[in-house]
Amino acid sequence: MVDGQTAFVGGYNIGARYATEWRDTHVRITGPAAWEVENVFIDFWNAHGGRGLPRLPDRGTRDWNPRINVYRNDPHMLIFPIRTAYLEAIDRAQRHIYLSHAYFIPDRMILRGLLTAAARGVDVRILLPATSNHTVADWLARSYYTQCVTSGIHLLLYQHAMMHAKTATIDGVWSTVGTANLDRLSLVGNFEVNVEFYDEALAQQMEDIFGRDASNTRELTPEQWQRRPLLERFVETMLLPLRPFL
Asked: Is residue 1 part of a domain?
């Protein structure tokens, strides 16, 4: 957040690997809507800053803009609106759902929503890293692949770099960029921030970005997935009890 007028939200961290090795997405918000992000920071700072640190003033001002919403998952406050936003958007989808995520370990309702959307003819595409920086997360994600590829969901595996973006765009209208992955830890455990947009121009930009990223992927086909070694199937089964914790 800069001077109350410019805010940045997304998966991009400060580090050398983000400049050269990892693929990520951030969004810049300028003008009155930046207050939404500033308010999240102020609330978090004042709640968790600890003794000896000054409290930040809560100005309590807001320009109501129905096209932009900033959602925070805050375990301290027991609120988790990012998951709800995803479920509502997926349920409304009529044409396409394009997701880019570093880790794909959805809960039962998120997975059901995606499978149901594919069953009603929605083009569901999920872009994931071929190999992420978390081996266990990769193996747990693989346990969902069979349901996805046999139900018409396209799994696109990003090549030669770590895909760390957390974005979605649906039907050329709804988009989100933020810090939350499609896993239980992000959706019902961690403090996360996502920005939700209802804007056709931004959705078109998100689709263009998704298309460029998709050009650096290989799609996992049902035939390829069925040919994976028995040892890999065994490891996937053994790690299933870890699902609720990630």
From this structure: no
Q: What are phi and psi of 231, to 5 degrees?
A: -60, -40
Number of domains within the chain: 1
pTM above 0.85, yes or no: yes
pLDDT band at 61 (very low <50, low <70, confident <90, very high): low
C-alpha to C-alpha distance for 172 and 224, rounded to whole angstroms: 31
Q: What is the pLDDT, as a whole number, of residue 29?
A: 93
Would you give the end-to-end CA distance of the chain in angstroms? 29
Question: Backbone phi, then psi, for 236, in 5-degree steps?
Answer: -55, -45
Domain that holds residue 113: 6-245
Residue 115 lies in a domain: yes
Confidence of residue 135 (pLDDT cuts 50, 70, 90): confident
CATH number at residue 73: 3.30.870.10
Q: In angstroms, how far is CA 90 from the centroid of its own chain?
A: 13
